[in-house]
Amino acid sequence: MPEQTSALQLVLSGDPALYAIVRLSLAVSFGATLLAALLGAPLGALIALSRFHGRHVIVVALNALMGLPPVVVGLTVYLLLSRSGPLGEFGLLFTPAAMVITQTVLVLPIIAALTRQTIEDLWLEYRDEFAAMGVGRLQRIRTLLWDARFSLVTTLLAGFGRAAAEVGSIIIVGGNIEGFTRTMTTTIALETSKGNLPLAMGLGMLLLGIVLAVNIAAWAVKYFGARFEQ
Amino acid sequence: MNAVAAPLPLSDLPLVFDQVAVRVGDTAILRDVSLRFTSGAPTVLIGPNGSGKTTLLRAAMGLIPPAAGVIRWGEQSGAGPRCSALVFQRPVMLRRSVADNVSYALMVASVPRAQRKARTQQLLDLVGLGSLAERPAPRLSGGERQRLALARALARDPAVLFLDEPTASLDPAATLAIEELVRAISARGVKIVMTTHDLGEASRLAGDVVLLHRGEVVETGPVGQLLGTPRTEVARRFITGQLLL
Question: Do residue B23 and residue B101 come from a single domain?
């Protein structure tokens, strides 16, 4: 029990170092989710409404990429960003930017695949009405994205949840540098190995709180959106 | 088809099916259908399930291309469907409010933004949904959905309105409301072409009737004549309630 008490005291004390770690974690995860959404949602919608040879292969591959192993992504991004890598000249390795990149790679397939499924389901429902009403192609995409907005917000929150809970890849490309690239998950891993359980447990409580808040938000969005579902 | 005197000149009519065939894969859905829809009282398509009624409406709207034959709108050969609208048997409600569903249809029909609010209210009042304007459309009952679908269709200001089984699965009160709406719309000069299983509904609404069976036109004529003194054996059996296989 003493560790739990110390952890709670640490969280409630408003320790600046601890909350700096929380801020960086949130910034990296928000940044990665935003980037993944900007790239993944249009990609998913495009695949949903397009018919081309080999489309099924793309859909299966996209779904498979949702299960990308984080350490493999971390290693790949590490090789790309390292001094001898093709992107080494930008000096991004062991920076928060590298962590955003690696989390974006992990979250993008989730957002793209779930967006594709959501838009495709709605498209099948709306297709005949669109045709009868004479809705143009661009307007169809806009309508589908708008009418699927509640499901898409849930998709974004799922992506954010994945990013916030991730540790394997960002510890490789971020380096877990104190005061610079140390996030909640990497700090928990480090402090646990050092035996500093109060700090690890305090961050664990905060991380659980964030994940819980994200899930409550997802539920609220779904609950509100259900008023407009069929 | 017999023509009934038109209250308004309609440039899109007559709608002519000239030896039209529609196939889905290897299956013939419509065969050698020749019809002429002119302005006037509603034309009602009757026939058992699978007779091709819905396919005929979809083909008329240009949603299914004919495998053979020609569908002509107006006097222009090869002209595509214009100023027409289709209400499906189970219309899809857009995931937004009742008013926004109609406003969306007005936007698609290129009605200027400044006019949409007033037009939306007019259309909702016409179909009796004025008090439900802010309700999420997917929460409407079956009859209310049909009325909203009619309002959306009327947003296109159609000269021809196709209705696919508009009262299927509705209770008598909702059926009565839809039938009164159909009469009101028809009285405005909109040509109604609708399908139904219900011979009573056909007799209440139709000016003339088309009986389809196995994708072919069996008989056409004024409603009183076709339902009262059918010329063909198939029509006689259908009207007397015998099963057509």
Answer: no
For residues B122 and B164, membership in a common domain is answered with no
B9, pLDDT greater than 60: no
Q: Do the chains contact at B138 and A125, CB–CB below 8 Å?
A: no
- pLDDT tens digits, A94-113: 999 999 999 999 999 999 99
Are B19 and B124 within one domain?
no
**What single-letter amino acid sits at A176?**
N
Record the tokens describing residue B189, joined without a space: 């000069």
Which of B136, B157, B178 corresponds to the end of one domain? B157
Closest-CA distance of chain B to residue A140, Å? 10
Q: Please give the residue range of the domain that contains residue B242.
A: 1-83+158-245
Please, what's the largest Cα pairwise distance for chain B?
Answer: 56
What does the domain layout of chain A look like in residue ranges? 22-195
The answer for residues whose C-beta is within 8 angstroms of residue A154's C-beta and 6 or more apart is A218, A221, A222
In a domain, B191, yes or no: yes
Q: How many other C-beta atoms are found inside a 10 Å radius of the C-beta of residue A160? A: 27
Residues 6+ apart with CB under 8 A from A138: none
Position B37 pLDDT exceeds 60: yes
B152 with B165, same domain: the answer is no
Q: At B45, is the secondary structure helix, strand, or coil? A: strand
Q: Residue A49: what residue type?
A: L
Is B88 inside any structural domain? Answer: no
Q: Is A137 on the interface with B (CB under 8 A)?
A: no
Q: Does A9 touch chain B (CB under 8 A)?
A: no
Does B142 share its domain with B100? yes
The sheet with strand B15-24 has its strands ordered as B27-37, B15-24, B68-73
A185 close to A170: Cβ distance less than 8 angstroms: yes
Contact flag A227-B156 (C-beta cutoff 8 Å):
no
Interface test with B, best of A133, A149, A223, A230 (most B CBs within 10 A): A133
Residues of chain A with Cβ-Cβ distance to B152 below 8 Å are 133
Its ipTM equals 0.84
Domains identified in chain B, total number: 2
Which DSSP symbol is given to B67? S
pLDDT in tens, A176-191: 998 899 999 999 999 8
**Architecture of the domain delimited by A22-195:** Orthogonal Bundle (1.10)
CA-based radius of gyration for chain A: 20
Distance, CA of B233 to CA of B229 (rounded, Å): 11
DSSP state of B173: H
- Predicted confidence (pLDDT) per residue in B64-86, tens digit: 999 999 998 886 655 455 689 99
Does the residue B78 lie in any domain? yes
CA–CA gap between residue B223 and residue B149 (Å, rounded): 26
- What phi and psi, each to the nearest 5 degrees, are found at residue B27? -95, 130
Looking up tokens 């007019």 gives B122
